[in-house]
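ok, trying the design again with the full structure, not the truncated one.
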């Protein structure tokens, strides 16, 4: 007899991001797969991290719930942008990235056997997180090409067993920014059925063309039933730091904190000092970030359009979903392999972001990340043009 892995992880494969990274490297493809900037973070933020490392004061454990000045920065940010009254003492937890934050929320707020609504296509860690917690995912797909929710489908997903809904806005991978009407519809169902919202808002500062990010926690009656997860990685181009946070009503956050203390206990301390600095930057920082990503989005859209790929222009995030059915015969995984090997561009096939029953909904789609240098995006566009010929 050999020791074997646990049943709870037995269905998990390697994440699609790791798989595509390996393939892209093997074939020298331009990697528009994983959402990882290929440019550096702002120099003053990196300098703040270096100072924190060298000062000798921050090389031991941070408080489990996070450094006090960083938690205050998170509360100030929520007040400044969304007029939310977050308690920096009892209403904020610092986590090792939003990925840990979402898992802590599930562990701290959902019981085994509870149903949790997941909107498809979903970020890939959500469902494994639910499975590890013994919860039951209930899937509600967004409908292309505009990636809209069907209110009746959503309503039917709520049952007496529903404990929570995982909501991501701006949404990875579709680039949707949910409107006030959509959020109100979701909020009303959550209030009616006494359901908690786990709101993943890591792309909160990446919106375009006047689309407005509206935090679920800011809707009437929702602050007390929403935990909001965000992070430093996307907003400050430091995805490698793995610094995230969760905020909400202290009664909910106490559950999240109980889970967090036995998952990582505390997160990287020097990065939290730099994070406090980053959150103190003026509003112009965010305006420049948006302008930078608007240019990148347009370069990406031009490349996709010229190649004959059809895509809904994303209102937010640094991702776009494109339909390749006019230029390629096959499914999303076959297209991804073809694109990496023959065209020299890597993308992400979205079928891993769906349950088995719904995977066909994205059969002719691929996700492209445009958090890359402008020249890289232009070069990718030139390579993609070969698809049309
Ligand atoms: N958020 C990133 C993406 O969607 C990837 C994060 C990860 O690799 N786990 O590409």
């Amino acid at each position: 007899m050999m020791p074997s892995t646990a049943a709870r992880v037995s269905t998990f494969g390697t994440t699609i991001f790791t798989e595509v990274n390996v393939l892209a490297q093997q074939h020298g493809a331009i990697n528009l797969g994983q959402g990882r900037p290929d440019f550096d973070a702002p120099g003053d933020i990196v300098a703040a991290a270096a100072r924190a490392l060298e000062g000798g004061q921050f090389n031991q454990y941070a408080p489990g719930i996070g450094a006090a000045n960083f938690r205050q920065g998170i509360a100030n940010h929520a007040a400044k942008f969304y007029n939310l009254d977050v308690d920096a003492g009892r209403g904020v937890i610092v986590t090792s990235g939003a990925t840990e934050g979402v898992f802590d929320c599930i562990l701290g707020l959902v019981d085994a056997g509870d149903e949790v609504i997941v909107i498809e296509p979903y970020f890939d860690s959500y469902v494994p997180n639910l499975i590890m917690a013994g919860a039951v995912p209930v899937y509600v797909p967004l409908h292309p090409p505009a990636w809209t929710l069907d209110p009746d489908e959503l309503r039917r997903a709520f049952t007496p067993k529903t404990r929570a809904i995982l909501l991501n806005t701006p949404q990875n991978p579709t680039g949707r920014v949910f409107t006030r009407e959509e959020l109100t519809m979701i909020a009303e169902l959550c209030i009616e059925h006494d359901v908690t919202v786990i709101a993943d808002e890591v792309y909160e500062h990446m919106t375009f063309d006047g689309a407005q990010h509206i935090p679920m926690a800011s809707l009437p009656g929702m602050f007390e039933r929403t935990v909001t997860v965000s992070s430093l990685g996307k907003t400050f181009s430091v995805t490698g730091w793995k610094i995230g946070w969760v905020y909400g009503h202290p009664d909910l956050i106490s559950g999240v904190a109980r889970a967090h203390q036995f998952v990582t206990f505390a997160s990287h301390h020097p990065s939290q000092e730099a994070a406090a600095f980053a959150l103190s930057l003026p509003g112009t920082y965010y305006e420049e970030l948006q302008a930078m990503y608007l240019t990148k989005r347009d370069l990406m859209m031009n490349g996709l359009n010229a190649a004959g790929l059809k895509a809904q222009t994303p209102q937010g995030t640094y991702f776009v979903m494109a339909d390749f059915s006019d230029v390629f015969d096959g499914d999303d995984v076959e297209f991804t392999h073809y694109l990496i090997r023959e065209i020299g561009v890597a993308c992400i096939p979205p079928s891993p972001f769906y349950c088995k029953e719904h995977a066909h909904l994205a059969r002719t789609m691929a996700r492209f990340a445009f958090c890359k240098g402008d020249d890289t995006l232009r070069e990718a566009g030139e390579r993609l043009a070969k698809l049309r010929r």
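Keeping the full-length input from now on. The two ends are 56 Å apart (CA to CA).
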